[in-house]
User: Fold these one by one.
Assistant:
Number 1:
Amino acid sequence: MDTAAKRLAWLPFLAREIPAGLATPADVARFELEQAGAKASLTVDPAMGEGWEISGDGITGGETGVLYGAYRLLMARAAGEAVPTGVQRPRYPLRMINCWDNAEGDIERGYSGRSLFFEGGRLSYDPARMRQLGRMLSSVGVNVLCINNVNVRDPAHRLIEDWLPELAALANIFRPFGVRLMVSIDYAQPMRHGVPTADPLDPQVQDWWTRQTAKVYEAIPDLAGYLVKADSEHRPGPFTYGRNHAEGANMLARALAPHGGVLVWRCFVYNCQQDWRDRVTDRPMAAYQHYSPLDGQFDDNVILQVKNGPFDFQVREPLSPLLLAMPKTRLAIELQLAQEYTGHQIDVYAMPPMWREVFDDMGADTVQAIAAVSNLGRDENYTGHPFAAANLFSYGLFAWNPDLSAEAVIRLWCRLTYALPADQEEALCRLLMESRSVYEQYTSPLGLCWMVNKMGHYGVGPDDYEFAAWGTYHRADRDAVGIDRTASGTGYLLQYPPALQARYADPATCPDNLLLFFHRLRYDHVMADGRALIQRIYDDHFEGYERAEAMAKTLAGLSLPSPDREEAARRMDMQLRNAREWCDVINTFFHRFSGADDAQGRTIY
Ligand code: GCU
């Protein structure tokens, strides 16, 4: 079994492991305050729920609120910041992490080792490490942890069957941290038990879920609920029975309602068997087409979980129009901490600047809950790249307060984690703040998605998705590239409210970073800055590579502690090789199509 990491992420001042046996969040709070030498009195006022207030040397808060308050006090002290005044409450009641861990112990899109929860086809974990994880999550306010993959494959369905006692034991470990478990379920699960169908309107199906869910809540009375991926990428769902997703979701929600559970239903639904010759079907349109007509038909304890963009966690996508089209439905936005398309936790990629844009476009109150796909694994530092922890940290703080500035949250992470001299802290903070834009520039500037290697989604593969069934095309030819998604093209743009339509409709005013997402343009198209499109493609890729080199230099000048210093340096070497490859392959790809020479005469192969 693993031993818990020695230096605890952004809480390096908590040297002692949490002992077993602390029963409540207030117990944990007392333990943490004491070991950090902070003399604060705790007052539990259950009416405050998750809220807390610090005044003088006292923390008053609800049952979990006191723990959140204690962590924020300790972090503020360590960072030399003032504690916020007044009562602090989270914006969203559900602040979830979704792990895509399989029962075998591997993690779908996992880049930091094997699962923390499973091994060899069963639950298997180090309790001490679970407590470390509990305090990490709690310190940034995450309150729901879904431990198994949304693609529920045998034997993971047993979590809510004969594995319930073990699941309950795990729930007990997380409870004192204010973290409740959630499980992904298999929509067709009753069919494993002799029910001949999974039709949501069939009484036998309803009955199976009602009975099974009662057993689940007997074992784990505070389970947050179920997470479901249905009719998506070959998962079963109500479409098989001619039912819509309100009918499917409500059936499960009614089994959960008597127990206070929520049903989180993912909206990642599209045709993953598209014929690449089909130029009419446009994948980003799918979720809106399926769900927006159902607005108002979902039960109160259903939450529709929508990815931030209409495709699938690309480096840059516009906001999913579905998020703006369901005013009568509870929504969760789904972000991805796992760096699936964003560098596999090898390349540096700090997400807060991206989330800031997403929330500014969406309006924080459009959703009522927030989820993020986990970047956690069994690596000693939990996240593979030591800097990837900044994304988990920032996610928690954003979920609590989506109005935060990206820079403030990154700076706080840097300060807590490393306590570097001021100039180095500034340099690290800038490196992280720029990292997404650097990655975007050497991989996929101008809003062009899906140029990625199809085998695993790390590295370049400009034609990998072009003749495939996933609905993900750039349609480059000798004259032009991109897809016209305006009213004259696929019509995707019309799914947006008027203000966003206006922002994107005209190539002359559409932001450069989404230009080729919305428009098909000739290589000689003159950009707002006067350069031809093809020249911008070349320039951006060369510049992206140069900026990655500059990042490597900055990194080398930082006096990070071991082993982060060596680990970050090792990964930076890989990042530079990756950036070189992206730059050269993409430029060569477009040069061969267009025949256009680089105005600066740089090497294109
Ligand atoms: C992506 C990812 C899959 C995942 C899916 C999902 O397509 O590549 O591994 O299962 O998203 O979000 O369900």
Note: The radius of gyration is 24 Å.
Number 2:
Amino acid sequence: MSNEAIAKGEAALLRQARDKFVATFGREPVAAASAPGRVNLIGEHVDYCEGFVLPVALPFLTVVVGAYNGTDDCSVVSVLASGEELRASFPSPLKTTLEPGSPPWANYVKGVVALFPGDVKGFDAVVVSDVPIGGGVSSSAALEVATFTFLEELTGTRVEPVKKAQLCQKAEHEFPGMPCGIMDQYIVTMAKKGHALLIDCRSLEATHIPLEAEGTVLLVVNSNVKHQLTGSEYPQRRAQCLAAAEALGIPSLRTAKTDDINKLQQLNCDELVLKRAKHVIEEISRTEEAAKKLPLNDLDRVGELFYESHVSLSNLMEVSCPELDRLVDILRSARGVYGARMTGGGFGGCVVALVEEETVEVVKKKILEEYSGNPTFFVCQPSDGARSIKLK
Ligand code: GLA
């Protein structure tokens, strides 16, 4: 198996989805949409505290195609990268109020169908994707936003982008039951090629930041490990941050300052709550600084901020794992690497590194030699967000 993850591209995924739809349902699809995965450059575990985040969209995509079927039921076939096929069906929301259920993967689709603000009659759909699943690059948000955009195309009901991201986030809260922040659905909806997006998770306004440092690339290393802790750990982190804000008497940690750590100490705050608050306060200011330094090509400083972010996620937020820490250590000792950090929710998944283009191959070789797991790599090309696709 190659260690290089290569994006198939929208045209190939669309062809695959369309062929599968015709073979399964015996007619042509009439609506189609795609949505990408994402990598967060910095601003980790702060979106649910109304902080700043700086993600980019990836060229890896989820494509949904389909058509009404003239019944009261929705049928969805999902083809995984391995070729395995998953099937699910549930009633149209016009017939009954949808509830989360089994199979678990279908809750991402069902939740969006349930919350879509238009009349969704029974439909058949096929989903294909090359977004790595469980890699911390937002395969969930890609599926939600691709489904939503497909429904916009199918029903003709269009929804303003921020509202769309919020509805997809709500779907993830209410159906799979993951209390995520807004970052993933927002970037997947609003990304622009060649840019990162500085999202203010309080005002929900965003600024596109051009990524044009010549001779420098974003190398993503997938550890290909996923520790099964995420289910309970993520909601705990969110609750601890909320507890810190409540103790300070503020709506979220966004408005907290470094001094507030002393205040929390004086209030005899739980030690874990204190550590989480420190991470969030410092990570928000690191993210604001990185967004200023990136367009100035001050890559040394951006790299330092990446390392600081990782150490904080590992020691204060405690969402890293030995594999991610090891990858960052290897990258720290490699020539031509400005900085590296874990990206996404944590407990496995990917590391993102800012690397001189001419040293990328040497850096990969070093990782293959020194890391005992089975990593995959890709150089991240910041890509566009979700779109509907016109079928000919
Ligand atoms: C997951 C969540 C996001 C965000 C990140 C951590 O990806 O879906 O909302 O909280 O973790 O930054």
Note: The radius of gyration is 21 Å.
